[in-house]
Amino acid sequence: MAKPILPPATIGIIGGGQLGRMMAMAAKTMGYQVLVLDPQPNSPAGQVADDQIIASYDDQAALAVLAQRSAVLTYEFENVDQAALEAVTDKKLLPQGTRLLKVTADRLLEKKFVANLGLPVTKFAAVDRIEQLDLAVQTVGLPAILKTRAGGYDGHGQWDIPDEAALAELIAHWQEPQIPLILEKKLSFEKEVSMMVTQDGQGQIRTWPLAENQHHDHILQSTFVKANGQARLNKKAA
Protein backbone atom coordinates (compact mmCIF):
# COMPACT_ATOMS: atom_id res chain seq x y z
CA MET A 1 0.00 0.00 0.00
CA ALA A 2 1.52 3.29 -1.11
CA LYS A 3 2.01 6.09 1.38
CA PRO A 4 0.17 9.36 0.71
CA ILE A 5 2.25 12.02 -1.03
CA LEU A 6 1.67 15.17 0.98
CA PRO A 7 2.46 18.86 0.37
CA PRO A 8 4.94 20.39 -0.27
CA ALA A 9 6.05 17.40 -2.41
CA THR A 10 6.66 18.02 -6.10
CA ILE A 11 4.25 16.71 -8.72
CA GLY A 12 5.84 16.25 -12.14
CA ILE A 13 3.46 16.82 -15.06
CA ILE A 14 4.34 15.70 -18.59
CA GLY A 15 2.58 18.12 -20.92
CA GLY A 16 2.12 21.84 -20.51
CA GLY A 17 -1.27 22.48 -22.09
CA GLN A 18 -4.53 23.71 -20.62
CA LEU A 19 -5.28 20.44 -18.82
CA GLY A 20 -1.86 20.52 -17.20
CA ARG A 21 -2.46 24.15 -16.28
CA MET A 22 -5.70 23.35 -14.47
CA MET A 23 -4.04 20.42 -12.71
CA ALA A 24 -1.10 22.60 -11.65
CA MET A 25 -3.37 25.36 -10.35
CA ALA A 26 -5.35 22.87 -8.25
CA ALA A 27 -2.14 21.31 -6.91
CA LYS A 28 -0.71 24.70 -5.97
CA THR A 29 -3.81 25.61 -3.95
CA MET A 30 -3.22 22.41 -1.94
CA GLY A 31 0.37 23.35 -1.20
CA TYR A 32 2.19 21.11 -3.69
CA GLN A 33 5.07 22.20 -5.87
CA VAL A 34 4.67 21.57 -9.59
CA LEU A 35 7.29 20.81 -12.25
CA VAL A 36 6.19 20.68 -15.90
CA LEU A 37 7.89 19.13 -18.93
CA ASP A 38 6.85 20.52 -22.31
CA PRO A 39 8.69 21.44 -25.54
CA GLN A 40 6.98 24.84 -25.75
CA PRO A 41 8.63 27.60 -23.68
CA ASN A 42 6.25 29.45 -21.37
CA SER A 43 3.60 26.78 -21.84
CA PRO A 44 0.15 27.31 -20.25
CA ALA A 45 0.97 24.88 -17.43
CA GLY A 46 4.51 26.19 -17.12
CA GLN A 47 3.16 29.69 -16.50
CA VAL A 48 1.60 28.60 -13.20
CA ALA A 49 4.10 25.88 -12.21
CA ASP A 50 7.16 26.35 -10.01
CA ASP A 51 9.42 25.41 -12.91
CA GLN A 52 9.36 24.00 -16.43
CA ILE A 53 11.74 21.67 -18.24
CA ILE A 54 11.75 22.58 -21.93
CA ALA A 55 12.16 19.31 -23.80
CA SER A 56 10.33 16.95 -26.12
CA TYR A 57 8.20 14.15 -24.72
CA ASP A 58 10.64 11.49 -25.98
CA ASP A 59 13.73 13.10 -24.43
CA GLN A 60 14.82 10.40 -21.98
CA ALA A 61 17.46 12.60 -20.34
CA ALA A 62 14.89 15.32 -19.64
CA LEU A 63 12.34 12.77 -18.41
CA ALA A 64 14.99 11.36 -16.07
CA VAL A 65 15.54 14.85 -14.62
CA LEU A 66 11.78 15.27 -14.19
CA ALA A 67 11.59 11.92 -12.40
CA GLN A 68 14.55 12.75 -10.15
CA ARG A 69 13.03 16.07 -9.09
CA SER A 70 9.47 14.77 -8.52
CA ALA A 71 7.78 12.68 -5.85
CA VAL A 72 5.25 11.41 -8.37
CA LEU A 73 4.64 11.77 -12.11
CA THR A 74 1.54 12.12 -14.22
CA TYR A 75 0.71 13.17 -17.77
CA GLU A 76 -1.93 15.58 -18.96
CA PHE A 77 -2.80 13.87 -22.24
CA GLU A 78 -2.16 10.68 -24.20
CA ASN A 79 0.37 12.02 -26.72
CA VAL A 80 3.34 11.04 -24.57
CA ASP A 81 6.15 8.72 -25.64
CA GLN A 82 5.38 5.49 -23.80
CA ALA A 83 8.77 3.82 -24.38
CA ALA A 84 10.72 6.86 -23.18
CA LEU A 85 8.53 7.13 -20.09
CA GLU A 86 8.96 3.46 -19.20
CA ALA A 87 12.73 3.73 -19.62
CA VAL A 88 13.16 6.33 -16.87
CA THR A 89 10.39 5.65 -14.36
CA ASP A 90 9.19 2.88 -12.08
CA LYS A 91 5.74 1.97 -10.82
CA LYS A 92 6.21 3.94 -7.62
CA LEU A 93 6.86 7.19 -9.53
CA LEU A 94 4.12 6.56 -12.10
CA PRO A 95 1.38 4.74 -10.15
CA GLN A 96 -1.10 4.77 -13.04
CA GLY A 97 1.43 3.01 -15.29
CA THR A 98 1.51 3.22 -19.08
CA ARG A 99 -0.88 0.45 -20.17
CA LEU A 100 -3.85 2.75 -20.62
CA LEU A 101 -1.56 5.37 -22.15
CA LYS A 102 -0.83 2.93 -24.98
CA VAL A 103 -4.54 2.23 -25.45
CA THR A 104 -5.79 5.82 -25.37
CA ALA A 105 -3.05 7.03 -27.74
CA ASP A 106 -4.46 4.86 -30.55
CA ARG A 107 -8.13 5.23 -31.49
CA LEU A 108 -8.28 1.74 -32.99
CA LEU A 109 -6.84 0.09 -29.87
CA GLU A 110 -9.17 2.25 -27.79
CA LYS A 111 -12.27 1.11 -29.69
CA LYS A 112 -11.22 -2.54 -29.49
CA PHE A 113 -10.49 -2.21 -25.76
CA VAL A 114 -13.95 -0.80 -25.03
CA ALA A 115 -15.64 -3.37 -27.28
CA ASN A 116 -13.80 -6.21 -25.50
CA LEU A 117 -15.25 -4.95 -22.22
CA GLY A 118 -18.68 -5.67 -23.67
CA LEU A 119 -19.63 -2.01 -23.91
CA PRO A 120 -21.44 -0.64 -26.97
CA VAL A 121 -19.33 1.22 -29.53
CA THR A 122 -20.13 2.62 -32.94
CA LYS A 123 -19.13 0.59 -36.00
CA PHE A 124 -15.50 1.09 -36.94
CA ALA A 125 -12.84 -0.20 -39.33
CA ALA A 126 -9.09 0.22 -39.68
CA VAL A 127 -7.86 2.12 -42.73
CA ASP A 128 -4.13 1.54 -43.18
CA ARG A 129 -4.03 3.53 -46.41
CA ILE A 130 -6.53 5.71 -48.25
CA GLU A 131 -7.03 3.05 -50.95
CA GLN A 132 -8.80 0.94 -48.31
CA LEU A 133 -11.38 3.61 -47.51
CA ASP A 134 -13.99 2.35 -50.00
CA LEU A 135 -13.88 -1.11 -48.44
CA ALA A 136 -14.09 0.35 -44.94
CA VAL A 137 -17.18 2.34 -45.92
CA GLN A 138 -18.84 -0.88 -47.08
CA THR A 139 -18.27 -2.28 -43.58
CA VAL A 140 -19.13 0.80 -41.53
CA GLY A 141 -21.64 2.62 -43.73
CA LEU A 142 -22.33 6.33 -44.19
CA PRO A 143 -22.38 8.96 -42.78
CA ALA A 144 -19.01 8.36 -41.17
CA ILE A 145 -15.97 10.17 -39.81
CA LEU A 146 -12.41 9.35 -40.89
CA LYS A 147 -9.85 9.99 -38.15
CA THR A 148 -6.14 9.60 -37.62
CA ARG A 149 -5.47 6.77 -35.20
CA ALA A 150 -2.96 8.83 -33.24
CA GLY A 151 -2.72 12.53 -32.44
CA GLY A 152 -5.27 15.04 -33.63
CA TYR A 153 -7.39 17.23 -31.39
CA ASP A 154 -9.77 20.19 -31.66
CA GLY A 155 -10.98 18.97 -35.04
CA HIS A 156 -7.54 18.25 -36.49
CA GLY A 157 -7.06 14.88 -38.15
CA GLN A 158 -10.79 14.32 -38.76
CA TRP A 159 -12.79 14.29 -41.99
CA ASP A 160 -16.59 14.12 -42.22
CA ILE A 161 -17.97 11.81 -44.92
CA PRO A 162 -21.72 12.45 -45.11
CA ASP A 163 -22.37 10.69 -48.44
CA GLU A 164 -20.87 8.96 -51.50
CA ALA A 165 -20.08 12.27 -53.22
CA ALA A 166 -18.04 13.44 -50.24
CA LEU A 167 -16.29 10.07 -50.15
CA ALA A 168 -15.25 10.31 -53.80
CA GLU A 169 -14.05 13.89 -53.35
CA LEU A 170 -12.03 13.03 -50.25
CA ILE A 171 -10.24 10.15 -52.00
CA ALA A 172 -9.61 12.18 -55.17
CA HIS A 173 -8.06 15.10 -53.29
CA TRP A 174 -6.29 13.18 -50.52
CA GLN A 175 -2.88 14.70 -49.87
CA GLU A 176 -2.17 13.57 -46.33
CA PRO A 177 0.86 11.35 -45.63
CA GLN A 178 0.38 7.61 -45.33
CA ILE A 179 -0.70 7.37 -41.72
CA PRO A 180 -2.87 4.79 -39.93
CA LEU A 181 -6.53 5.84 -39.91
CA ILE A 182 -9.83 4.65 -38.47
CA LEU A 183 -13.30 5.04 -39.95
CA GLU A 184 -16.15 5.41 -37.47
CA LYS A 185 -19.87 5.34 -38.15
CA LYS A 186 -21.40 8.72 -37.33
CA LEU A 187 -24.15 8.44 -34.75
CA SER A 188 -27.04 10.66 -33.83
CA PHE A 189 -27.01 10.90 -30.05
CA GLU A 190 -28.77 12.96 -27.43
CA LYS A 191 -25.72 14.24 -25.56
CA GLU A 192 -22.12 13.52 -24.57
CA VAL A 193 -21.29 13.18 -20.90
CA SER A 194 -18.04 12.40 -19.12
CA MET A 195 -17.01 11.46 -15.61
CA MET A 196 -13.62 11.67 -13.90
CA VAL A 197 -12.60 8.65 -11.83
CA THR A 198 -9.50 8.42 -9.65
CA GLN A 199 -7.91 5.84 -7.36
CA ASP A 200 -5.36 6.63 -4.66
CA GLY A 201 -2.49 4.55 -3.32
CA GLN A 202 -4.78 2.98 -0.73
CA GLY A 203 -7.14 1.69 -3.41
CA GLN A 204 -9.91 4.18 -2.66
CA ILE A 205 -11.91 5.13 -5.75
CA ARG A 206 -13.65 8.48 -6.12
CA THR A 207 -15.87 9.80 -8.89
CA TRP A 208 -16.47 13.42 -9.74
CA PRO A 209 -19.87 14.83 -10.77
CA LEU A 210 -20.95 14.04 -14.31
CA ALA A 211 -20.23 16.72 -16.92
CA GLU A 212 -22.09 17.40 -20.16
CA ASN A 213 -19.92 18.36 -23.15
CA GLN A 214 -21.02 20.34 -26.19
CA HIS A 215 -18.97 20.29 -29.41
CA HIS A 216 -19.04 22.24 -32.66
CA ASP A 217 -17.12 20.95 -35.70
CA HIS A 218 -15.46 18.34 -33.46
CA ILE A 219 -14.15 21.05 -31.11
CA LEU A 220 -15.25 21.19 -27.48
CA GLN A 221 -17.07 24.47 -26.92
CA SER A 222 -18.41 24.16 -23.40
CA THR A 223 -18.74 21.78 -20.47
CA PHE A 224 -21.55 21.95 -17.93
CA VAL A 225 -20.77 20.29 -14.61
CA LYS A 226 -24.44 19.90 -13.73
CA ALA A 227 -25.50 17.77 -16.65
CA ASN A 228 -29.21 17.44 -17.40
CA GLY A 229 -30.55 14.31 -15.75
CA GLN A 230 -27.60 14.52 -13.34
CA ALA A 231 -28.82 12.29 -10.51
CA ARG A 232 -29.91 9.42 -12.76
CA LEU A 233 -26.78 9.55 -14.93
CA ASN A 234 -24.43 9.96 -11.95
CA LYS A 235 -25.73 6.73 -10.43
CA LYS A 236 -25.54 4.83 -13.72
CA ALA A 237 -22.03 6.07 -14.60
CA ALA A 238 -20.58 5.43 -11.14
From TrEMBL:
<dbReference type="GO" id="GO:0006164">
    <property type="term" value="P:purine nucleotide biosynthetic process"/>
</dbReference>
<dbReference type="InterPro" id="IPR011761">
    <property type="entry name" value="ATP-grasp"/>
</dbReference>
<keyword id="KW-0067">ATP-binding</keyword>
<dbReference type="InterPro" id="IPR016185">
    <property type="entry name" value="PreATP-grasp_dom_sf"/>
</dbReference>
<protein>
    <submittedName>
        <fullName>Phosphoribosylaminoimidazole carboxylase ATPase subunit</fullName>
    </submittedName>
</protein>
<keyword id="KW-0436">Ligase</keyword>
<keyword id="KW-0547">Nucleotide-binding</keyword>
<dbReference type="GO" id="GO:0016874">
    <property type="term" value="F:ligase activity"/>
</dbReference>
<comment type="pathway">
    <text>Purine metabolism.</text>
</comment>
<dbReference type="GO" id="GO:0005829">
    <property type="term" value="C:cytosol"/>
</dbReference>
<dbReference type="Pfam" id="PF02222">
    <property type="entry name" value="ATP-grasp"/>
</dbReference>
<dbReference type="GO" id="GO:0046872">
    <property type="term" value="F:metal ion binding"/>
</dbReference>
<keyword id="KW-0658">Purine biosynthesis</keyword>
<keyword id="KW-0464">Manganese</keyword>
<dbReference type="InterPro" id="IPR003135">
    <property type="entry name" value="ATP-grasp_carboxylate-amine"/>
</dbReference>
<dbReference type="Pfam" id="PF22660">
    <property type="entry name" value="RS_preATP-grasp-like"/>
</dbReference>
<dbReference type="InterPro" id="IPR054350">
    <property type="entry name" value="PurT/PurK_preATP-grasp"/>
</dbReference>
<feature type="domain" description="ATP-grasp">
    <location>
        <begin position="111"/>
        <end position="157"/>
    </location>
</feature>
<dbReference type="InterPro" id="IPR013815">
    <property type="entry name" value="ATP_grasp_subdomain_1"/>
</dbReference>
<dbReference type="GO" id="GO:0005524">
    <property type="term" value="F:ATP binding"/>
</dbReference>
